[in-house]
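Team,

Forwarding the record for the chain on the shared tracking sheet. I've put the sequence and predicted structure together so nobody has to dig through attachments.
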Amino acid sequence: MKFDTPATTNPIDQLKVIGKPTDRIDGPVKTTGTARYAYERNAEVPRAAHGYVVGAGIAKGRIASMDLGAAQAAPGVLAVVTARNAGKLAKGDFNTAKLLGGPEIDHYHQAVAVVVANTFEQARAAAQLVRITYERGSGRFDLAAEKDAAQMPKPNPFSGEPQTKTGDFPGAFAAAPVQLDATYTTPDESHAMMEPHASIAQWQGDRLTIWTSNQMIAWGVGDVAKTLGIPKDKVRLVSPFVGGGFGGKLFVRADAVLAALGARAAKRPVKVALQRPLMMNNTTHRPATIQRIRIGATPDGKITAIAHEGWSGDLPGGQAETAVNQTRLLYAGANRLTTTRLAVLDLPEGNAMRAPGEAPGLMALEIAMDEMAEKLKLDPVEFRVLNDTQVDPEKPERPFSQRRLNECLRMGAERFGWGKRSATPAQQRDGRWLVGLGVAAAFRNNLLTKSAARVRLDNRGMVTVETDMTDIGTGSYTIIAQTAAETMGVSLDKVSVRLGDSAYPVSAGSGGQWGANNSTSGVFAACMKLREAVAAKLGMAAAEAQFSDGMVRAGGRSVPLAEAAGAEGLAAEDGIEYGDLDKKYQQSTFGAHFVEVGVDAATGEIRVRRMLAVCAAGRILNPKSARSQVIGAMTMGVGGALMEELALDKRHGFFVNHDLAGYEVPVHADIPHQDVIFLDETDPISSPMKAKGVGELGMCGVAAAVANAIYNATGVRVREYPITLDKLLAGLPPVA
């Protein structure tokens, strides 16, 4: 199905199933422990051996020698695979460094060997017997130290150009009566999903099957095939359940490749799960940023000049954190400048983590907007409303398909009691607590990518959907089932959904907030083709046929859907492909976050007391699971504001707190009641579903809202995340 004109009325608009707060259909198997994740596929692979990964003990240099003798002679050991005996390996398109290193070392904990044994304990014990000596090289580990050497990266489809200029920013900023020039920093952050990166690999002749934990199945197939030098049609990836991803499982990692190499060497299936320290240093992380923001405005609050410059680092050939991109679109202003620069750092790979670009970018921009509002003596909400735009500020000829940011801000302010906020910081107290309110805008682009599905109808009236789309805890199973049920006119219990298998048609996958809208659009396309097949089978005009309550009606006839399927059933396969609507219209999602904090006047302890998110993100396919996505994102935003930081050893180039004891994330006791409001909207320019996405929008801006609330409570402005009490203590007002 080609989507190149705005959607008109279609079967989804019936809203009999779509748009209803529906329980997750995968909930029962997950809550009872019967959902089998990658490491638990024992029924399919009953005799799997265990692999244990050995990570490099240096961040830069080379392996001088590697003694495998003791490990190979250890009890139960079947094989030890290194770069020396693994055969010729390439680097996947989505990997910045090789997944099996040696003799050259690119980063700390780069995999250099996998020990395969009969049991996990035997593999782990033998791995400790691998003796490696290194020739340590000098590495670059400090972003601030390398900042001046950073270069503009090459443009790519996700980040666009590294620099944009509109008007005369230097001149307009110099002439602006009110100016802000501030620098903000965000730290390296780690994915901390509950399920580790894990895989089981099995060879059957020259065919490889990997049961793995992965967000993007087709990408994974391509990278495994390229790395191992085998045809893509010889690789099958299976990932029906993923225990959290957040972007850290967009690409296959060392567990998948080393399981495959270990299985080939041991001549039996092998399972590998990365231990937590390797998740922090071996896989990907959100890279640290340095961000300079300059804003010039007239005394009445109109922005005349705005610039956002960002610096981040990555391995050679890596990508920049595009923290400036939302500034290209969020606020009006005739004179504009954004620049992204990338430094070469010899740290573990920096890459996508929930809402890459906008999440760290808004952490800086939305503090700057508050600081500018204070300079102008304007309410922060009103300052943002005043600088709204309904067109792309860099390309005024291109309007937004939908933009209701102001409505999100005003509704949120009313619901949250914003009018009670003191404009002067450190004025509100509740016993020992200094109380403050903060706000931030939320923004995330709506990305379109083609997605396909196969739909089958049997003689029981059951509809089965097959697509390689993944469910990373986001509710994909449910919204796909809702889409099929709505389109085919059946109840949810008449739909079966099969996901996460490369044997199925290629979907959008889970990432970039594009999964829900695109994958359901692909399912809708397949279902519409199946409707055509049903109508043709029954001799009905497809355009006139009505599908509802398990029946097909047209021309005065009414036939059960099951009867139309016949003994052999019917099947259809199709997908959604997009035209140029996303070039004619800027498609984005918007929101507003409001936060109330309490700060202990004596100790600086911070408590988040209330949170509200108002989201405008097209049609909400399942309000229940969408709300869960947003409150989870809000929680993650609190972590980014107050806790999350990979502690970098700048001497030796590794993240020290590489486990869940040292890397702090919010727990239930840290998070108060959270409210979520979805504006009632549809976006017919986005897709036939008229939807967008909310999973990352719910995080964007949260950290800044927390930071702004802390300033309102204490009068202490912190521009360096995370905001910890040591950064507050010296500036707190007198206790008495």
